[in-house]
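Hi support team,

I submitted a single chain yesterday and got back a structure, but I'm not sure I'm reading the C-alpha coordinate output correctly. Could someone confirm the output below corresponds to the sequence I sent? I've pasted both exactly as they appear in my results page.

Thanks,
R.
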Amino acid sequence: MQGIGCTGRLRYVRVMSFLLAHLSDPHLGPLSRPRWRELASKRGLGYLNWRRGRGAIHRADVLLALVEDVLARHPDHIVVTGDLTNLALDSEFAAAAAWLRRLGDPDRVTVVPGNHDAYLPGALERGLTLWSPWLASDGHEHAHLSAHELFPSVRRRGPVALVGVSTAIATGPFHASGQVGHQQLEKLGDRLAHLGREGAFRIVLIHHPLEVERRHWSKRLLDAGALKATLAMHGAELVLHGHMHVASEHLAAGHPPAHVIGVPSASADPARAKTPAGYALFRIEPSETGWSVTMERRGFVSPGRIGKLEGKSFAINRLRA
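Hi R., thanks for writing in. Yes, this is the structure output for that exact sequence:
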Protein backbone atom coordinates (compact mmCIF):
# COMPACT_ATOMS: atom_id res chain seq x y z
CA MET A 1 0.00 0.00 0.00
CA GLN A 2 1.34 3.39 -0.97
CA GLY A 3 1.38 6.40 1.33
CA ILE A 4 3.21 9.55 2.35
CA GLY A 5 6.70 9.64 3.81
CA CYS A 6 9.71 11.84 4.43
CA THR A 7 13.47 11.33 3.99
CA GLY A 8 15.65 14.17 5.39
CA ARG A 9 14.35 17.39 3.90
CA LEU A 10 12.88 15.65 0.89
CA ARG A 11 9.16 15.03 1.24
CA TYR A 12 7.74 12.45 -1.13
CA VAL A 13 4.20 11.41 -1.96
CA ARG A 14 3.23 7.99 -3.21
CA VAL A 15 -0.34 7.90 -4.51
CA MET A 16 -2.68 5.59 -2.59
CA SER A 17 -5.47 4.39 -4.89
CA PHE A 18 -8.41 2.14 -4.08
CA LEU A 19 -10.79 0.69 -6.69
CA LEU A 20 -14.27 -0.26 -5.44
CA ALA A 21 -17.05 -1.97 -7.43
CA HIS A 22 -20.67 -1.52 -6.33
CA LEU A 23 -23.50 -3.78 -7.47
CA SER A 24 -26.90 -4.44 -5.99
CA ASP A 25 -30.16 -6.37 -6.18
CA PRO A 26 -28.99 -9.49 -8.00
CA HIS A 27 -32.24 -11.32 -7.08
CA LEU A 28 -30.54 -14.64 -7.66
CA GLY A 29 -32.41 -17.19 -9.72
CA PRO A 30 -33.73 -19.46 -10.89
CA LEU A 31 -36.13 -19.69 -7.98
CA SER A 32 -36.80 -23.27 -6.95
CA ARG A 33 -40.41 -24.26 -6.30
CA PRO A 34 -41.16 -23.60 -2.62
CA ARG A 35 -42.99 -26.08 -0.42
CA TRP A 36 -46.66 -25.26 0.17
CA ARG A 37 -46.07 -24.31 3.79
CA GLU A 38 -43.43 -21.79 2.64
CA LEU A 39 -45.99 -19.92 0.54
CA ALA A 40 -47.97 -18.65 3.49
CA SER A 41 -48.66 -14.92 3.79
CA LYS A 42 -46.62 -12.53 1.64
CA ARG A 43 -44.50 -15.27 0.06
CA GLY A 44 -47.46 -16.59 -1.92
CA LEU A 45 -47.96 -13.21 -3.59
CA GLY A 46 -44.23 -12.87 -4.18
CA TYR A 47 -43.99 -16.30 -5.77
CA LEU A 48 -46.95 -15.53 -8.04
CA ASN A 49 -45.28 -12.25 -9.03
CA TRP A 50 -42.05 -14.12 -9.85
CA ARG A 51 -43.89 -16.64 -12.03
CA ARG A 52 -45.90 -13.94 -13.81
CA GLY A 53 -42.95 -11.87 -14.96
CA ARG A 54 -40.36 -10.94 -12.37
CA GLY A 55 -38.45 -14.15 -13.00
CA ALA A 56 -38.08 -13.21 -16.67
CA ILE A 57 -36.59 -9.82 -15.77
CA HIS A 58 -33.94 -11.09 -13.35
CA ARG A 59 -31.78 -13.44 -15.36
CA ALA A 60 -28.85 -15.54 -14.21
CA ASP A 61 -26.99 -15.16 -17.52
CA VAL A 62 -27.23 -11.35 -17.34
CA LEU A 63 -25.82 -11.39 -13.81
CA LEU A 64 -23.03 -13.75 -14.86
CA ALA A 65 -21.98 -11.44 -17.70
CA LEU A 66 -22.03 -8.40 -15.42
CA VAL A 67 -19.95 -10.13 -12.74
CA GLU A 68 -17.41 -11.22 -15.35
CA ASP A 69 -17.05 -7.56 -16.36
CA VAL A 70 -16.66 -6.53 -12.71
CA LEU A 71 -13.90 -9.09 -12.11
CA ALA A 72 -12.15 -8.06 -15.32
CA ARG A 73 -11.71 -4.54 -13.82
CA HIS A 74 -9.70 -6.12 -10.93
CA PRO A 75 -11.30 -4.07 -8.13
CA ASP A 76 -9.68 -3.99 -4.72
CA HIS A 77 -13.10 -4.64 -3.20
CA ILE A 78 -16.69 -5.41 -4.24
CA VAL A 79 -19.81 -4.35 -2.32
CA VAL A 80 -23.32 -5.75 -2.80
CA THR A 81 -26.12 -3.67 -1.29
CA GLY A 82 -28.85 -6.21 -0.71
CA ASP A 83 -31.65 -8.27 -2.21
CA LEU A 84 -29.62 -11.33 -3.03
CA THR A 85 -32.76 -13.43 -2.51
CA ASN A 86 -36.34 -13.09 -3.70
CA LEU A 87 -38.51 -14.69 -1.01
CA ALA A 88 -35.88 -15.23 1.73
CA LEU A 89 -36.23 -19.02 1.49
CA ASP A 90 -33.64 -21.16 3.28
CA SER A 91 -32.62 -22.59 -0.11
CA GLU A 92 -32.08 -19.07 -1.45
CA PHE A 93 -29.79 -18.09 1.42
CA ALA A 94 -27.68 -21.19 0.76
CA ALA A 95 -27.55 -20.44 -2.97
CA ALA A 96 -26.57 -16.83 -2.24
CA ALA A 97 -23.73 -17.99 0.04
CA ALA A 98 -22.42 -20.16 -2.82
CA TRP A 99 -22.67 -17.18 -5.18
CA LEU A 100 -20.74 -14.98 -2.73
CA ARG A 101 -17.97 -17.57 -2.54
CA ARG A 102 -17.65 -17.40 -6.33
CA LEU A 103 -17.73 -13.60 -6.28
CA GLY A 104 -14.76 -13.38 -3.92
CA ASP A 105 -13.24 -14.09 -0.54
CA PRO A 106 -14.84 -12.30 2.42
CA ASP A 107 -11.86 -9.97 2.73
CA ARG A 108 -12.57 -8.76 -0.83
CA VAL A 109 -16.41 -8.68 -0.77
CA THR A 110 -18.85 -6.93 1.60
CA VAL A 111 -22.63 -7.39 1.71
CA VAL A 112 -25.58 -5.75 3.45
CA PRO A 113 -29.11 -7.25 3.35
CA GLY A 114 -32.15 -5.86 1.56
CA ASN A 115 -35.89 -6.05 2.14
CA HIS A 116 -36.26 -9.22 0.05
CA ASP A 117 -33.72 -10.87 2.36
CA ALA A 118 -36.10 -10.17 5.27
CA TYR A 119 -39.29 -11.13 3.45
CA LEU A 120 -40.95 -12.64 6.52
CA PRO A 121 -40.24 -12.24 10.26
CA GLY A 122 -37.29 -14.40 11.29
CA ALA A 123 -36.13 -15.18 7.77
CA LEU A 124 -33.12 -12.84 7.79
CA GLU A 125 -31.78 -14.17 11.09
CA ARG A 126 -31.50 -17.66 9.60
CA GLY A 127 -29.67 -16.31 6.55
CA LEU A 128 -27.20 -14.11 8.41
CA THR A 129 -25.34 -17.13 9.76
CA LEU A 130 -24.53 -18.26 6.21
CA TRP A 131 -23.49 -14.79 5.09
CA SER A 132 -21.65 -13.62 8.22
CA PRO A 133 -18.13 -13.83 6.67
CA TRP A 134 -19.18 -11.16 4.12
CA LEU A 135 -21.31 -9.10 6.54
CA ALA A 136 -19.54 -8.80 9.88
CA SER A 137 -17.05 -6.28 11.18
CA ASP A 138 -13.37 -7.17 11.05
CA GLY A 139 -12.60 -9.82 13.63
CA HIS A 140 -16.19 -11.09 13.85
CA GLU A 141 -16.53 -12.74 10.44
CA HIS A 142 -17.38 -16.19 11.81
CA ALA A 143 -19.32 -15.19 14.91
CA HIS A 144 -22.99 -16.15 15.22
CA LEU A 145 -24.45 -12.70 15.75
CA SER A 146 -27.96 -11.30 15.42
CA ALA A 147 -28.75 -8.41 13.09
CA HIS A 148 -28.71 -6.05 16.11
CA GLU A 149 -25.19 -7.21 16.97
CA LEU A 150 -23.87 -7.28 13.38
CA PHE A 151 -24.84 -3.77 12.32
CA PRO A 152 -23.52 -1.25 11.81
CA SER A 153 -20.45 -3.18 10.73
CA VAL A 154 -17.06 -1.63 10.04
CA ARG A 155 -14.51 -3.15 7.68
CA ARG A 156 -11.23 -1.31 7.04
CA ARG A 157 -9.62 -1.79 3.65
CA GLY A 158 -6.64 0.46 3.00
CA PRO A 159 -7.78 4.10 3.17
CA VAL A 160 -11.44 3.04 3.05
CA ALA A 161 -13.83 2.24 5.90
CA LEU A 162 -16.85 0.25 4.73
CA VAL A 163 -19.73 0.86 7.13
CA GLY A 164 -22.55 -1.63 6.66
CA VAL A 165 -26.06 -0.59 7.72
CA SER A 166 -29.09 -2.89 7.68
CA THR A 167 -32.47 -1.47 6.66
CA ALA A 168 -33.93 -4.95 6.11
CA ILE A 169 -37.22 -5.47 7.95
CA ALA A 170 -40.22 -7.70 7.33
CA THR A 171 -43.22 -5.79 5.97
CA GLY A 172 -46.77 -6.58 4.96
CA PRO A 173 -48.00 -7.36 1.42
CA PHE A 174 -47.40 -4.65 -1.21
CA HIS A 175 -44.86 -2.87 1.00
CA ALA A 176 -41.06 -2.82 0.64
CA SER A 177 -40.07 -0.20 3.18
CA GLY A 178 -37.01 -0.32 5.40
CA GLN A 179 -35.82 0.96 8.75
CA VAL A 180 -32.47 1.55 10.43
CA GLY A 181 -33.75 1.79 14.00
CA HIS A 182 -32.71 3.94 16.96
CA GLN A 183 -30.13 1.52 18.37
CA GLN A 184 -28.30 1.14 15.07
CA LEU A 185 -28.41 4.89 14.42
CA GLU A 186 -26.74 5.63 17.75
CA LYS A 187 -23.91 3.20 17.07
CA LEU A 188 -23.60 4.47 13.49
CA GLY A 189 -23.04 8.04 14.66
CA ASP A 190 -20.31 6.96 17.07
CA ARG A 191 -18.52 4.89 14.44
CA LEU A 192 -18.68 7.56 11.75
CA ALA A 193 -17.29 10.14 14.16
CA HIS A 194 -14.45 7.83 15.23
CA LEU A 195 -13.56 6.95 11.62
CA GLY A 196 -13.67 10.62 10.67
CA ARG A 197 -11.11 11.45 13.36
CA GLU A 198 -8.90 8.67 11.97
CA GLY A 199 -9.04 10.27 8.51
CA ALA A 200 -10.70 7.27 6.82
CA PHE A 201 -12.72 7.55 3.63
CA ARG A 202 -16.12 6.51 5.01
CA ILE A 203 -18.49 4.59 2.72
CA VAL A 204 -21.93 3.81 4.14
CA LEU A 205 -23.52 0.72 2.56
CA ILE A 206 -27.30 0.57 2.74
CA HIS A 207 -30.09 -1.02 0.75
CA HIS A 208 -32.83 1.64 0.79
CA PRO A 209 -32.20 5.12 -0.64
CA LEU A 210 -32.43 8.25 1.48
CA GLU A 211 -35.00 9.77 -0.87
CA VAL A 212 -37.89 8.30 -2.89
CA GLU A 213 -40.55 9.90 -5.04
CA ARG A 214 -44.06 10.04 -3.56
CA ARG A 215 -45.30 7.43 -6.03
CA HIS A 216 -42.80 4.99 -4.46
CA TRP A 217 -43.88 5.78 -0.89
CA SER A 218 -44.35 2.10 -0.01
CA LYS A 219 -40.63 1.54 -0.76
CA ARG A 220 -39.31 4.34 1.45
CA LEU A 221 -36.86 4.25 4.34
CA LEU A 222 -39.13 4.91 7.34
CA ASP A 223 -36.50 6.75 9.38
CA ALA A 224 -34.69 8.43 6.50
CA GLY A 225 -34.85 11.77 8.32
CA ALA A 226 -33.01 10.40 11.33
CA LEU A 227 -30.37 8.77 9.14
CA LYS A 228 -29.83 11.99 7.19
CA ALA A 229 -29.42 13.87 10.47
CA THR A 230 -26.82 11.33 11.63
CA LEU A 231 -24.89 11.68 8.37
CA ALA A 232 -25.09 15.48 8.55
CA MET A 233 -23.78 15.51 12.12
CA HIS A 234 -21.00 12.94 11.89
CA GLY A 235 -20.13 12.85 8.19
CA ALA A 236 -19.57 10.29 5.43
CA GLU A 237 -17.93 10.57 2.05
CA LEU A 238 -20.10 8.13 0.06
CA VAL A 239 -23.46 6.43 0.62
CA LEU A 240 -24.07 3.49 -1.73
CA HIS A 241 -27.49 1.86 -2.10
CA GLY A 242 -29.76 -0.17 -4.37
CA HIS A 243 -33.49 -1.04 -4.01
CA MET A 244 -35.01 1.14 -6.75
CA HIS A 245 -33.30 -0.71 -9.65
CA VAL A 246 -32.21 2.57 -11.29
CA ALA A 247 -29.04 4.64 -11.49
CA SER A 248 -29.31 7.67 -9.22
CA GLU A 249 -27.16 10.31 -7.54
CA HIS A 250 -27.64 13.20 -5.15
CA LEU A 251 -25.92 14.99 -2.27
CA ALA A 252 -26.91 14.55 1.37
CA ALA A 253 -26.46 17.48 3.74
CA GLY A 254 -23.26 17.42 5.75
CA HIS A 255 -19.77 18.86 6.12
CA PRO A 256 -18.69 17.71 3.65
CA PRO A 257 -21.93 16.58 1.94
CA ALA A 258 -22.08 12.85 1.22
CA HIS A 259 -22.42 11.69 -2.37
CA VAL A 260 -25.38 9.27 -2.44
CA ILE A 261 -25.14 6.80 -5.34
CA GLY A 262 -27.66 4.16 -6.44
CA VAL A 263 -27.21 1.42 -9.05
CA PRO A 264 -29.67 -0.72 -11.06
CA SER A 265 -30.35 -4.38 -10.42
CA ALA A 266 -27.31 -6.45 -11.38
CA SER A 267 -29.51 -9.07 -13.10
CA ALA A 268 -32.01 -6.89 -14.98
CA ASP A 269 -32.58 -8.15 -18.52
CA PRO A 270 -31.66 -5.37 -20.99
CA ALA A 271 -34.55 -6.41 -23.25
CA ARG A 272 -37.25 -6.38 -20.54
CA ALA A 273 -36.27 -4.14 -17.64
CA LYS A 274 -36.82 -0.37 -17.67
CA THR A 275 -33.20 0.05 -16.58
CA PRO A 276 -30.76 -2.63 -17.78
CA ALA A 277 -28.29 -4.28 -15.40
CA GLY A 278 -25.35 -2.13 -14.39
CA TYR A 279 -22.86 -1.31 -11.65
CA ALA A 280 -20.51 1.47 -10.57
CA LEU A 281 -16.74 1.66 -10.18
CA PHE A 282 -15.09 4.16 -7.83
CA ARG A 283 -11.41 5.01 -7.86
CA ILE A 284 -10.58 6.74 -4.58
CA GLU A 285 -7.32 8.64 -4.12
CA PRO A 286 -6.11 11.10 -1.46
CA SER A 287 -5.49 14.70 -2.48
CA GLU A 288 -3.91 17.68 -0.77
CA THR A 289 -7.31 18.88 0.48
CA GLY A 290 -9.08 15.55 0.96
CA TRP A 291 -10.08 12.98 -1.62
CA SER A 292 -10.39 12.65 -5.38
CA VAL A 293 -13.06 10.24 -6.63
CA THR A 294 -13.58 9.03 -10.17
CA MET A 295 -16.87 7.22 -10.81
CA GLU A 296 -17.57 5.07 -13.85
CA ARG A 297 -20.97 3.54 -14.50
CA ARG A 298 -20.85 0.34 -16.54
CA GLY A 299 -23.66 -1.76 -17.94
CA PHE A 300 -25.31 -3.04 -21.07
CA VAL A 301 -24.74 -0.60 -23.91
CA SER A 302 -26.60 -3.09 -26.13
CA PRO A 303 -28.36 -6.38 -25.28
CA GLY A 304 -25.17 -8.40 -25.67
CA ARG A 305 -22.40 -5.96 -24.78
CA ILE A 306 -21.26 -4.35 -21.54
CA GLY A 307 -19.35 -1.09 -21.63
CA LYS A 308 -18.91 2.34 -20.09
CA LEU A 309 -22.15 4.28 -19.70
CA GLU A 310 -20.96 7.37 -17.85
CA GLY A 311 -17.89 8.77 -16.17
CA LYS A 312 -17.34 11.68 -13.80
CA SER A 313 -14.93 12.92 -11.16
CA PHE A 314 -15.51 14.88 -7.99
CA ALA A 315 -13.46 16.16 -5.08
CA ILE A 316 -14.33 15.71 -1.41
CA ASN A 317 -12.69 18.09 1.04
CA ARG A 318 -11.53 16.68 4.34
CA LEU A 319 -12.66 18.64 7.37
CA ARG A 320 -9.96 19.91 9.66
CA ALA A 321 -10.48 19.69 13.40
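A quick pointer for reading it: The CA atoms of residues 152 and 188 lie 6 Å apart. Let us know if anything else looks off.

Best,
Support desk
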